[in-house]
């Protein structure tokens, strides 16, 4: 499961924790974990889903500092034990890429938590190349991999209207380009990653983010949050769906269920 908690959760954290307690995912990736350095909120999430709040089950990936001074950390909480973890934060990555290997019934599964650049597709494409250095296409196609996160990218496979560009412009959304660009997700799919929500949706829900221009009351629905699988776990995919979170964040969560 992946979920962008929006600026650390702020005063919405009780609602976030309640959602985690209700869903109780086995593997959870959280983005925008601002202010979580003291470990308290990470431990509270671990407790909510019923796992120990230790380094074998919960890790915080320290992100690069943004121009605002904020660090948009990426966290991972796992019911299966974490055998190893590594934070990748090269200068070309806006936040960080959190890599962890977990032991699932004796089989190692590599999970990458990601939160890509929010501003433009060119910056995200640079980050994707860094990601593919961690998870080379040949290794992904041959192994057990999961990529979770807010990729801030659109896929051409979602049911956007033909005039999506006009909708984005009216809502004041420019980070996908004009016309909207889809190269980031195209690149990941070409590298062997499989979109769980496209592959086996549980129902028709697909929107994870609504972008709005409040002064004009204009909004546009998008999906930028993904659970991507390598072919081996994709073959065990039961279903994927969007978990609506109400006012707990400006993103909904995405979850995939594997056999």
Give a quick rundown of the structure.
With 259 residues, the protein is α+β, with helices and mostly antiparallel strands. It has helices spanning 13-23, 40-49, 121-134, 137-142, 164-170, 183-190, 196-199, 231-234, and strands spanning 2-4, 27-31, 58-61, 74-78, 82-88, 97-104, 107-115, 145-150, 194-195, 209-213, 218-222, 225-229, 237-243, 253-258.
Highlighted features:
259 residues, alpha+beta, Deoxyribonuclease I, Chain A, 4-stranded mixed beta sheet, globular
Verbal overview:
There is one protein chain. With 259 residues, this protein is of the alpha+beta class. It has one domain (2-258): 4-Layer Sandwich (Deoxyribonuclease I, Chain A). Helices cover 25% and strands 30% of the residues. It has a six-stranded mixed sheet. Strands 1-2-4-3 form a four-stranded mixed sheet, with helices on one face. A two-stranded antiparallel sheet has the order 10-11. β5 and β6 form a beta hairpin. α3 (121-134) runs parallel beside α6 (183-190). The chain is globular. The model has no long low-confidence stretch (mean pLDDT 96).
